[in-house]
Each structure stands twice: as C-alpha cells, then as structure tokens.
Amino acid sequence: MSYYIVKIIITAILVVAISEISKRSSLIGAILASLPIVSVLAFIWLYIDTKSAEKISELSTGIFWLVIPSLSLFLVLPILLKSKVDFYLSLFISCVIMMFFYFSMLFILKKLNINL
Predict the structure, then answer these.
(1) Which of 45, 63, 98, 107 is exposed most, by the fewest CB atoms within 10 A?
(2) pLDDT tens, 34-58?
(3) CA distance 48 to 36
(4) Distance from C-alpha of 88 to C-alpha of 103, rounded to nearest angstrom
C-alpha cells in the first residue's frame, strides 16, 4: 500500500511543480509539461510492477499513436481563447474535438491492422 502512496505523491508533486513554475514562466512550464514525464513515470511504475519489457514496448507504441490526436487540443484551445470564448467552454470544446480525433485515430489504426 505504501508503494502506491509513493507513486501518487511523486506524480502529484511533478504536476503541481509544473503548474507553479508555469505561473512564473510560461516557456519553462511549457518545456517541462511537454516532456514525457508522465509517460516515463508510467514506464518506471509498470516495469517495477511487471518486469515486462513487452508491456513497456506496448505502452510506448500506444502512447506514440495517441499523442498525435491529443495535439488537436493544443491547436484548438488557444484559438478559442484568443476568440474570447470562455475558458471552461473552450476547454470543453477542445476536449470534445480531441476525443473525436482519438476515435478517428483508433478507427484508422484498426483499418491499418495496428492493434493497441
């Protein structure tokens, strides 16, 4: 049980640290947020839990393919915000559009016989 608490604390500290750093410098916050810190932590936690290089490989491949549709959020959100759309509505619309791209990517990958 304490192992899970350590995992949660480390992960939460990183997210809070990036948020706090972003208040002072958007550039440094963006650099830190763009690093695949969560993915690397997931690889570490998964490897510690399973000792399976195959599971890490599968996770890494899935992340690669699903990062592509997630980029739509980072394109749509600033456009909506610059157009003076309310923040929460902009975030909601951006997430809905991102979900559309996720489902589209999964459909395309299935057609290409790429199983995640």
Answers:
(1) 107
(2) 878 888 988 999 999 999 999 999 9
(3) 18
(4) 23
Residue 109: both structure tokens together: 């990958």
R_g over Cα of the chain = 17
Q: How far is C-alpha 75 from the geometric centre of its chain's CA atoms? A: 15
Answer yes or no: are the C-beta atoms of 116 and 103 closer than 8 Å: no
Please, how many CA atoms are within 13 Å of residue 108, restricted to the half-sphere of its CB?
Answer: 10
Q: Where are the domains of the chain?
A: 52-116
CA angle 44, 59, 4 (to 5 degrees): 40
Q: What is the pTM of this model?
A: 0.74
List % helix, strand, coil for the chain (3-state, nearest 5): 85, 0, 15
- Displacement of CA 71 from its chain's centroid (Å): 9
Q: Which two tokens stand for residue 3?
A: 């192992």
Q: Tell which wins on pLDDT, 61 or 29.
A: 61
Distance CA 21, CA 7 (A): 21
Confidence band, pLDDT 50/70/90 cuts, at residue 66: very high
